Amino acid sequence: MRKNEKESSGTAPEMPKQAYKDGLHKLQVELVKLQRHFIQCDDKILIIFEGRDAAGKDGAIKRIVQHLSPRETRIVALGKPSDRDRASWYFQRYVPYLPAAQELVLFNRSWYNRAGVERVMGFCTDTEYEEFMGSVSDFEHMLVRSGIKLLKYYLDISKPEQKQRLNERKRDPLTQWKVSTLDNIALKKWKQYSLARDEMLAHTHNSIAPWTIVRADDKQLARLNIIKDLLSRLHYADKDERLILPDPKIVFGFDTAYLEGGLLAK
Asked: pTM of the prediction?
């Protein structure tokens, strides 16, 4: 939804560009403080970003890592699995990318591909899907017990917003690399993706590895509030508490009641 559409519909208009830039800069300073701290303390941080196509995962990750040291920061965005990957333990292809001490790793999509696109598109069998859903929480709990600090974000957008973004992606020569054959299918299978999302969240949300939902129709507000939320969840020295309070209307912990309460796009 564009700015004039928001104003005419009575919803809040987009944040002024300078206010967004100023707010982002202050939060990126906090991210640098966070990195200094987790390097000194040998922390291992893993952040998972999931969501529909064009939900804004790339943009959010870009703003998080923009001013961080590339030696201790890694972005993982795996492509189509190889024949060897398909013949291996499902989680095996992800394990080499997990963070070591002093590292921040951000997964732009993750093992939850099995619960999303693979499930909807038939790229996995029912048995493979059920095995994943039954074992993923055990896998994540093992990671947490090993000392990894795990954060999971699901970026949720409306169908009209996804359609708008996918069309913009096709028209913009600088985003052609993002265009895939699955883009049009994403809109056609909207309801199937909604059902897969609901099943994934309901079955894999727990107190040890909870899901955090991000209302991402407004990219700028989503980015700022994701950064605020992750900063609020992680310990680091000299934290500016005034800056890191996320808007609970934008970022909030998942609850199964939300599946019927209209808080997720249907």
From this structure: 0.94
CA distance 105 to 46: 5
Cα–Cα dist 120/197, whole Å:
10
> Which residue blocks in the chain are alpha helix, DSSP H?
3-9, 17-40, 57-65, 83-86, 117-121, 126-145, 159-171, 182-188, 190-204, 219-233, 258-261
Q: How far is residue 165 CA from its own chain's centroid?
A: 17
- Write the single-letter amino acid at 16: P
Is residue 90 a contact partner of residue 127, using CB atoms and an 8 Å limit?
no
Third-level CATH fold of 20-79+105-255: Rossmann fold (3.40.50)
Q: What radius of gyration do the chain's Cα atoms show?
A: 18
Average pLDDT of the chain, as a whole number: 94
> Domain coordinates of the chain in residue numbers?
20-79+105-255
Q: How far apart are CA 67 and CA 264, in angstroms?
A: 32
- CB atoms under 10 Å from CB of 246, counted, come to 20
List pLDDT tens digits, range 52-63.
999 999 999 999
Residues in contact with 34: Cβ distance below 8 Å, sequence separation at least 6, in sequence order: 231, 234, 236
